[in-house]
Amino acid sequence: MDIDFSQYEPFKPVVYAVKCPKCGSLDYPAPMICKNCGERRDPSGVIFSAWEKVPLEGKCKLLGWTKLYALPEGIEKKYLLFGVVEFKNGLRAIGRLLVEEPKTGMELVSTAGLVREIPGEDVAGFIFDIPG
Amino acid sequence: MYSYGMTLPGFGGIFTRMYMERYGLTEEELSLVAVKDHENGSKNPWSHVETTCTIEGICNSPDAKVVNNMVADPLRMYHMCPVSDGAATVILCAQDSPKMKYFKKKEPVLLSGIGSATDTHCVHKRKDPLELTAVRLSAERAYKMAGLKPEDISFAELHDAFIILELAISEEVGFFKKGKAREAIVKGITHIDGSLPINTSGGLKAKGHPLGATGVSQIYELVKQLRGEAEKGRQVKNPKHALSVNFGGFGNNVVTTICSKE
Q1: H or E stretch including A94?
Q2: For residue B1, with 0-12 CB atoms within 10 Å meaning exposed, 13-18 middle and 19 or more buried, which class applies?
Q3: Check: CATH 2.40.50 for A57-129?
Q4: Which ranges constitute the DSSP H helices of B111-180?
Q5: Contact assessment for residue A40 and residue A30, using Cβ atoms and an 8 Å cutoff
């Protein structure tokens, strides 16, 4: 008997953009209505179609950043860095920045990963780092 | 985003850095807004923070990094509003209502224009993250209703939860061209004795930000100034029309109000 071990694989977070089935435009975070053609999205796929999900990762450019010292309760760090990036496909995202001395316009690479571990509620999100 | 670790001051920090890099605004020029707001707030008896501050004290002195600690680089403590408690009330009555006879004790002020607009909550998703489109749209609607233009406004109360927003909003409502609000604060145009005073109450920076009461407290200030009842040293000379901008989130839900002297 074959045993499917895939369910035992470690959790690998992925952040998705969505693709409008009518006009093909990409959007992140997923909207309920396409800003380009007005097509409606239904995550359950019952009333309107569910849109194709496209992993959002890879090379990106840093547009702006901050070093945040006043962090939400429960985060026991002196500071965290956050940045806004633009991907090659024009989509933008905000996420955790691992570069200690960021410079606006620098090339980064984006991955998805666990950014915070709260018991029972692990938080996954974008992590931006220097390529290589 | 909050569970991520990102907060509203974090958005303010990113916005401020982008503004500084695009328009050449310096930390000292930005701090001039705080100095002005604290000066106005010190003369307002309803102000949360009634102390004044100086550029020397919050920027240049050896103790500045302690007194004015970093919160969301490049935003420091004196670049953001306190969290306040407070309440404010206005009484509205239709101009042609017979009930107007009950409001004879004080000079009524005309609500000449009001406009609201919304924008996406995702700052990064906006066409230009430095554009506050909802502010521009709500102001256009208020101007249209009032039949006025930006140059008709005598003074304004703007939502400066982070003082960079005073500069950005003043550009969006048409007081200054993009990137030029910086020159206005340096030249003293937005000071109480300037040609277009902004945040005469001390703004959210010094008067305080009691969240739900903030918008109404801005209208209270407009009415007080238009009636000529503001305290000595912070009364605008002969105001005719006044504008306020209040918003929720980071410019996602904006209301612009114009009040006029009848």
Answers
A1: strand A92-97
A2: middle
A3: yes
A4: 133-146, 164-172
A5: no
Determine the pLDDT at residue A6. Answer: 67
Q: Where are the domains of chain A?
A: 8-55, 57-129
The CATH number for B11's domain is 3.40.47.10
Q: Which residues have CB under 8 Å from B178's CB, separation 6+?
A: B23, B171
Nearest CA to B78 among B23, B42, B33, B20? Answer: B33
Instruction: List, for residues B160-183, the tens digit of each pLDDT value.
Output: 999 999 999 999 999 999 999 999
Give the span between the Cα atoms of A126 and B30, in whole angstroms.
Answer: 31
Contact A115 B5 (CB under 8 A): yes
Q: What are the tens digits of pLDDT across the range B214-259?
A: 999 999 999 999 999 999 999 999 999 999 999 998 999 999 999 9
Beta-carbon separation of B73 and A66 below 8 A: yes
List the Cα angle B200/B21/A93 in 5-degree steps.
100
**Whole-complex ipTM:** 0.90
Contact, A84 vs B128, CB < 8 A? no
- Identify which of B3, B70, B124 has the shortest CB distance to residue A84: B124
Query: CA Rg, chain B, in Å?
Result: 18
- CB-CB under 8 Å, B123 with A66: no
Residues 6+ away with beta carbon under 8 Å from B151: none
Integer Cα distance of B244 and B222 in angstroms: 8
Q: What is the pTM of this model?
A: 0.93
3-state SS, residue B185: helix
Please count the residues of chain A.
Answer: 132
> Best residue in B7, B11, B17 to probe A by mutation, most A CBs within 10 Å?
B17
